[in-house]
Amino acid sequence: NAGVTQTPKFQVLKTGQSMTLQCAQDMNHEYMSWYRQDPGMGLRLIHYSVGAGITDQGEVPNGYNVSRSTTEDFPLRLLSAAPSQTSVYFCASSYTGSNEQFFGPGTRLTVL
Amino acid sequence: QKEVEQDPGPLSVPEGAIVSLNCTYSNSAFQYFMWYRQYSRKGPELLMYTYSSGNKEDGRFTAQVDKSSKYISLFIRDSQPSDSATYLCAMSLDNYGQNFVFGPGTRLSVLP
Predict the structure, then answer these.
(1) How far apart, in whole angstroms, are the C-alpha atoms of residue A69 and residue A54?
(2) Whose CA is closest to B44, among A33, A67, A95, A16?
């Protein structure tokens, strides 16, 4: 099993550009989520999904969109990048009813 | 006041030392408590998981929860250089894999 995979590993964007961060898992987990990690702030939940076709907002959803068309994939879209979105983004997955989240390796995003 | 507080460190200890890492929290409704370990430029991985108050031991690691004081601890015995990482506490209201709150993490260095 590859676990949770994320692409790209690194990305530099200019203000106003859009992009999609990819996340995939091969563990048949129902629950998937996106976090951002900033120094001194811990991991903050952006969006999550409890299954295909179902998504909901987390703590910091503004500026981000998600969709969940399959169990395996959960892409995160930045609509119009801003410097405040410079961060490390982690995708995670787990079985529903489990607090054990499996994290991907992260995407380091810089917005100039 | 932040919902979860954690000393960011860095904490440097000699190899073989006993390490104590701590978090305090404000929401008395938290029931599930976790410690994640995050190596540099990697995603977090679950290290310890406890429910309600009490102790849990796993090898060199012991997790303690004191709900009356809203205080959780992670002890590492006989610390090794391979324990050098950032340790994130996390807590949840339920066991559905949602409603997580993470602490900002404590960076630990174990010196040979």
Answers:
(1) 9
(2) A33
> Residues B94, B95, B100, CA angle at the centre, nearest 5°?
65
Nearest to A88 by CA among A69, A102, A64, A105: A105
Q: Are B35 and B92 in contact (CB under 8 A)?
A: no
> What three-state secondary structure class fits B99?
coil
Taking residues A58-68, report their average pLDDT.
95
Half-sphere exposure of A109 (CA within 13 A, CB side): 32
What three-state secondary structure class fits A37? strand
- Write out pLDDT tens, residues B28-69: 999 999 999 999 999 999 999 998 888 999 999 999 999 999
Flag whether pLDDT at B97 surpasses 70: no
Instruction: Give the best residue of B7, B40, B100 to mutate against chain A (max A CB count within 10 A).
Output: B100
Q: Residue B1 — very low, low, confident or very high, per pLDDT cuts 50/70/90?
A: low
Chain B: nearest CA to A70, how far in angstroms?
19
Give the closest residue to B62 by CA, choosing from B72, B52, B71, B74. B74
Of B32, B97, B104, the CB nearest to A41: B104
Cα diameter, chain A: 40
